[in-house]
Design goal:
single chain; Rossmann fold; 4 domains; Pyruvate-ferredoxin Oxidoreductase, domain 3; 20 helices; eight-stranded mixed β-sheet; alpha/beta; seven-stranded mixed β-sheet
């Protein structure tokens, strides 16, 4: 008997074009509507057809929702012969493999279930194209979710293709459903999860959509970008919502044009942003430097993926922190954010717009492929909302764009709002904005631009601590997308010696963090090869990082591998 009472890890594997992500989308919506907590993440190759892709869906009781990738597979559904060998390293002694006869490889006979996926698809629709509906039905049958949810979903999803296509998909799903119900009875599979009526109205959001919602809530009214995965989805979301929210969308001819268009819009008073990946951002660096000297705000979203160069274009990594931290020639102030949950993504995007506008600096939001493509159920009440404050002043005839002030912030005017001339220049300039080569003016202007950093530090978002951090001997520090895996690993270990600290703002760092880490050994977890945030933490706070847990294979951390690493850490304390 297989008993699953906390959560179930379901993995669907197949080649690009077989509908793996179609199964994911259907299951997530149907299971959410049934009252379950769901989380999904995916891995896919950089090709339109073929290869071997997979999606993991974790189904949990809403009392204990899961928000991280696990190595463990409870039920594997193989849609082609390559899926089992591709995912073989994740198949354990308790994994049940559902595959066509002969396609389960060397999986032990008692753990493989011959599943006539293609036969059902052909019987229902006369085509293997219906295989994804068969798999959908099998999963729901095993989980004992009412079939009515699948029927309603399929009617909505395929209504535009006509009644015949709808009927064939429903028939394919029903055949799979009956097979799944029968299999769960024969194999004595018990899935004892508790759905909740209260959670049926939860939102189902991926990281991309969350960042887009945060941009809208932050007052974004201009975006200019050149498409580059995995960040393109943010551009697509804002383009879709442009008319509704009054957003000007410019798909630029290249990244250089994109950031310069964004700065031009910002100069005119817009809340502007760009979205790109590391390789595209490389081309934007001169524009970032321009933002620094003309003190014109811009929000820059970087969807990280493994480099150098094209690297692994559809995989994940946290390798661009140093790029964002040091991008652009010369020295100037910036802010960098990195959300770890869907609600955080909505919140930090608003913070990024507010920081950029208030302090007249470039503000970065770092995500990655794993975070952008992950999907989770979210209570709408958990999404933060920050009031939009427009930091723009009406100018008079004596207006000085770069007037010297005690805090280094000059009143920001825009052309046409008032009688003043809003003069900006990429050369060093005086208070009027006119070019100068005076060494003294240069000194004063550099000091002026750097004065705002102290205020930015004091207002920086504090990291999120675990409940036991104060009493813990070791602080396990992470940033960005590793939050879910670290929190679950610590929770499952249950060691009072280990506490967690997650950063959603990685620069500047609030000086209060030093007190939070005082007297503790520091372990930093991050998806890169060198430990970029560990270096930054040590430099900014003067603390010693005792250990770095790093990964740069293109995969996210699994909960299990972090548990293994942190068990070693816990043992050294005994």
């Amino acid at each position: 008997m297989s008993q699953h009472s906390k959560d179930v890890s379901i993995v669907v594997g197949g080649s690009a074009g077989q509908g793996v992500q179609t199964v994911e989308a259907a299951l997530m919506k149907i299971l959410k509507d049934a009252g379950y907590g769901v989380f999904a993440c995916k891995e896919y190759m950089s090709r339109v057809r073929g290869g071997s892709n997979s999606v993991e869906i974790r189904v949990s009781s809403t009392r204990s929702p899961r928000r991280a990738y696990v190595r463990r597979i409870d039920f594997l559904f193989a849609m082609d012969a390559a899926a089992v060998p591709h995912l073989g390293w994740r198949i354990g002694p308790d994994t049940l493999v559902f595959a066509e006869a002969g396609q389960a490889g060397d999986v032990a006979p008692g753990r493989r279930i011959d599943t006539p996926i293609l036969s059902f698809a052909n019987e229902a629709g006369g085509s293997p194209l219906y295989a994804n509906s068969v798999v959908l039905g099998v999963v729901l049958g095993i989980l004992n979710v009412p079939f009515s949810g699948a029927e309603s979903y399929l009617r909505r999803a395929f209504s535009r293709k006509g009644d015949d296509i709808v009927a064939k998909n429903i028939d394919a799903a029903r055949k799979g459903y009956e097979f799944g119900k029968h299999t769960s009875f024969v194999e004595d599979i018990a899935v004892a999860l508790s759905p909740s009526e209260d959670r049926k109205d939860d939102l189902l959001l991926d990281g991309t959509t969350a960042l887009g919602i945060g941009a809208v809530a932050g007052g974004c009214d201009f975006i200019s970008s050149y498409p580059m995965s995995p960040a393109t989805g943010v551009l697509a979301f804002l383009a879709k919502e442009a008319k509704r929210f009054g957003i000007v969308v410019d798909q630029a001819e290249d990244e250089i044009s994109a950031i310069n268009a964004g700065l031009g819009a910002s100069y005119a008073g817009a809340r502007a942003m760009v979205t790109t990946s590391g390789g595209g951002f490389d081309l934007m660096q001169e524009g970032v430097s321009l933002s620094g000297i003309i003190e014109t705000p811009i929000v820059i979203h970087i969807g990280q993926r493994p480099g150098p160069a094209t690297g692994l274009p559809t995989r994940t990594e946290q390798g661009d922190l140093n790029l964002a931290l040091h991008a652009g020639h010369g020295e100037f102030v910036r802010a960098i954010y990195a959300p770890g949950t869907v609600p955080e993504a909505v919140g930090v995007m608003q913070h990024a717009f507010e920081t950029a506008d208030r302090y007249q600096v470039p503000a970065f939001v770092l995500s990655d492929q794993y975070f952008l493509d992950s999907v989770a159920t979210v209570d709408e009440g958990d999404l933060p909302r920050i009031p939009v404050a427009r930091h723009i002043s009406e100018t008079d005839e004596g207006y000085l764009r770069y007037a010297l002030t005690e805090d280094g912030l000059s009143s920001r005017g825009v052309p046409g709002y008032g009688k003043g001339l809003v003069c900006v220049d990429s050369d060093e300039h005086d208070e009027n904005g006119r070019i100068t080569e005076s060494f003294e003016v240069r000194r004063v202007m550099m000091e002026k631009r750097w004065k705002r950093l102290e205020a930015m530090r004091e207002s920086a978002i504090l990291p999120s601590p675990s409940d036991n951090l104060d009493a813990a001997e070791t602080a396990v520090v992470c940033w960005g997308s590793n939050r879910g895996a670290v929190e679950e690993a610590l929770g499952r270990l249950g060691s009072v010696k280990l506490g967690g600290l997650h950063f959603s703002q990685v620069f500047p760092i609030n000086p209060k963090v030093k007190k939070m880490l005082k007297g503790k050994e520091i372990v930093v977890v991050e998806n890169n090869h060198t430990g970029q945030f560990a270096d930054l933490l040590a430099r900014e706070l003067g603390v010693k990082v005792s250990r770095r847990i790093l990964k740069s294979t293109g995969e996210p951390f699994s909960v299990e591998e972090l548990m293994d690493e942190l068990k070693l850490e816990s043992k050294t304390k005994n």
